[in-house]
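ingest -> validate -> predict -> emit
validate: passed (alphabet ok, no gaps, 454 aa)
predict: started
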Amino acid sequence: MNNTIHIHFIGIGGISMSGLAEIMVTQGHKVTGSDIKTSDITDHLESLGVTITPHSKDNITTDIDLVVITAAINENNEELKYAKELGKKIVTRAEFLGDLMATYEFPICIAGTHGKTTTTSMLANILLHTNNNPTITVGGIVDSIGGNIHIGDTKYFLTEACEYHNSFLDFNPMVGVILNIEEDHMDFFKDLDDIKHSFTEFASLIPKQGLLVIEETALQNTPAIKNIAAPIETFGLSKTADWSAQNISFDANACPSFDVYYKNEFVFHIAIALTGTHNVLNTLSAIAVCHFLDIPVAEISKDLIHFSGAKRRFEMRGKIHDILLIDDYAHHPSEIKATLNTVAKYPHKNLYVVFQPHTYSRTKTFLNGFVDALSTYGQIIVTDIYAARETNPGDIHSRDLVKLLQNKGTNSIYIESFDEISDYLLTTTEPGDIIMTMGAGNVNQIIDTLLGKS
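emit:
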């Protein structure tokens, strides 16, 4: 990497892969890539001079020095197979990212089952507006950096750290954040203990001159983490946490304000533009990191007040006929419950939630959890399951979820197509209502349709 090389990214259109490709272009390397479809992301990379083509073994040319692959690329991919035949050096996205962050003075990795994108975006906003210039890769679109990537200097490297396939175990954090530890990605992990083991291994990567910031109950439930070499600071709503939020109140738009305490001493009062109690916790973790980086408290307060989050995280998309349209990425029972508890505080008449289950394995594993979470509030409209990387096993369907919701007394229906859902909402909702799309797939397209039909 000290010399200019040719790097080929298989699956370059992914939110993380594209960011890494852009960093490499900026550093002067030759970059090519392949993907199954074009997008705004691939269009942007092509505008930087990156050649992107559909998957083909012909993409693996003799001058390629390094091939980078995502976890979504399987062993039968023709490019990957041919690269192996030619003896090309092949690394995963996580391995590549881990090597890259090791070249920075302060790699900061945000881990946890939920909240990674929001917290990473929050920290990015603070670092940028306090005249630090971090390099940032984030799993969402953030207005303050104009996308999912910002290329800064060699001091701070800020990124999400995903536990899926143990990707974060290839990283080199100086500062690590663990927002929460819950069951997820059960198509990879055996059980919750397996997940806890992975997060413990991640925490152990942090050197003794670094810092682990972890939610208090996550540390209590994963005691092995206490044995790591790095110092540990906790955050939470309890006064026993190192960083705690007290005297929490919400405005008319469900945005919280609260007093921040560090080791039971008052630090400052803050109001944030994000909604919900879960974002109080995300904010505390960001403040703890900034404190370690010696960023003045007053600057932290000022920059958090105006931060409104990443795209698809409780994103206000607009209105039709005085009906508010909100999109949210929640696709895990805990996220769904937190989001519905938040929107319940928002001024409105009725709430209509269009939920798109994400992957067959997650739907089956968390079926009862989805029933419990979705029965929290609102009328629930369930779409077909978004397959993502999976094929349909034939033993789970959205109708199964709807039936259980109805048995529990929840107002819930299954509607197959997005067009039918849009028509239903346009004929059912009234001024003052909220329509919320929810899920990690393409359910947000329903709002695009609604705005187009208005």
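The chain has 15 helices and 21 strands.
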